[in-house]
Amino acid sequence: MLTRFVSRIAKSTIRPVVALAMAAAMTVPALALSDQEQQTLQDLNTYFNSVKTMHGDFIQFGPDGSQSDGKFYMARPGKVRFYYNKPSVLDIVADGKSVSVRDRKLNTQDIWPLGQTPLRFLLSDSIDLQQDTNVTNVLVEEDLVTVTIFDKTKFNSGTLTLIFDAKDYALKQWTVTDQQGYDTSVAVYNVVSNGPSNPDLFKIDYLANSRQ
Question: Which of 96, 164, 184, 210 could be joined to 78 by an S-S link, Cβ 3.0–4.6 Å?
Answer without folding.
Answer: 96
